[in-house]
Automatic annotation (TrEMBL):
Xref: InterPro entries: COX15/CtaA_fam, COX15/CtaA_HemeA_synthase
GO CC annotations on file: membrane
Membrane topology (UniProt): Multi-pass membrane protein
Keyword set includes Chloroplast: no
Source organism: Knoellia koreensis
Superkingdom of this protein's organism: Bacteria
Protein name (database record): Heme A synthase
Transmembrane spans: 29-49, 88-107, 128-151, 157-178, 198-219, 239-261, 273-292, 298-320
GO-annotated biological processes: heme A biosynthetic process
Record keywords, A-Z: Cell membrane, Disulfide bond, Heme biosynthesis, Iron, Membrane, Metal-binding, Oxidoreductase, Transmembrane, Transmembrane helix
Xref: Pfam families: COX15-CtaA
GO MF, one example: metal ion binding
Length: 325
């Protein structure tokens, strides 16, 4: 007779989860997926801010004839920073693959024949599978975009695209993680539909803010390479103030969604989610003005990039919270 796993007590009306430990491991892997996606954004920022973008001047090799840095390279310590970021891509890829497998294996009803792949995809939660697939495919795409970035001599448009795709992957990994905490199936809104739409508009404006942020960086002193800087050619001051104007619009929208969630949601979860977005935004604004008035020290700019990633995570969390009941 097949052994039946232990079932933990559940509330009345809830569907018992026969494999709670498996679901816990799935969520841990999904959380790790978020962490490494944020981490590689930080290391990628370190590459650019230290002028190490061409520390490995070729791709996929680091230098002609070697996939790793060599002692006689003219790039000095920059080669180790760039190579470290390339190496981290492998870790990010393995974590993305493990997260996708966990979603396929444990998000749907358990199968006696786990090797029945087609049955596995059919029963796994689509709302978790799709973002997990996006992350894994995006890691592969980022490796190619990174190679194009090197081969084009750090073209600012490619560098901006490289960062913005990273933000999409952070958002996708965050969506899979936070959505895994909700029950399977359609999640009804916990707020008025207009509040949800306003939240979507806020996310779009956030994308504009991030895009303008890449133009600011690409117009300033941190172009990615210490010897041959590649810049957009825009006036950094003008672009910075345009970026700041977009941030002010974003802050106003965040406050509007926060207040509307407090007024229409039956619980405090949605409002707390948007309060967190507001808090990260204020901190990000403080760091942004600090870097502007202190001459863009690279350490402060790196903190600004980290907070940009955390803002994306907070936004996804807040949007998912609008569907908590």
């Amino acid at each position: 007779m097949r052994n039946v796993p232990h079932r933990s007590p559940t509330a009345v009306g809830e569907t018992p989860d026969p494999y709670p430990s498996a679901v816990t491991w799935m969520r841990r892997l999904l959380l790790l997926n978020v962490v490494v996606e944020v981490l590689i954004v930080v290391t990628g920022g370190l590459v650019r801010l230290t002028g190490s973008g061409l520390g490995c001047p070729t791709w996929p090799q680091c230098v002609p004839g070697s996939y790793t840095p060599v002692a006689h390279q003219a790039e000095g310590y920059h080669r180790y920073i760039e190579f470290g970021n390339r190496t981290l891509t492998g870790l990010v890829g393995w974590v993305a693959l493990a997260a996708l497998y966990a979603v396929w294996r444990w998000s749907g009803p358990q199968r006696e024949q786990w090797y029945a792949v087609w049955r596995g995809w059919g029963s796994a939660r689509r709302d978790l599978v799709v973002p997990a697939v996006v992350v894994l495919a995006g890691v592969v795409a980022q490796a190619v975009i990174g190679g194009i970035t090197v081969l084009t001599g750090l073209n600012p448009l490619i560098v901006s695209a490289h960062f913005l795709v990273s933000m999409v992957l952070v958002a996708s990994a965050s969506l899979a993680y936070y959505r895994s905490q909700l029950p399977a199936g359609p999640a009804p809104l916990a707020v008025h539909p207009l509040v949800h739409r306003l939240g979507l508009v806020t996310c779009v404006v956030a994308g504009v803010v991030l895009a303008l942020g890449t133009v600011v960086t690409g117009s300033g002193p941190h172009s990615g390479d210490a010897e041959t800087p590649a810049r957009y050619g825009f006036d950094p001051r003008t672009i910075s103030w345009l970026h700041a104007d977009a941030v002010m619009l974003f802050v106003g929208l965040v406050v509007a969604v926060w207040l509307a969630a407090r007024l229409t949601a039956p619980t405090s979860l949605p409002a707390r989610g948007w309060a967190a977005v507001f808090g990260v935004t204020l901190l990000q604004g403080a760091v942004g003005y600090t870097q502007y008035f202190t001459g863009l020290p690279w350490v402060v700019v790196l903190g600004h990039m980290l907070l940009a990633s955390l803002l994306v995570v907070a936004l996804v969390r807040a949007m998912v919270a609008l569907r908590r009941v």
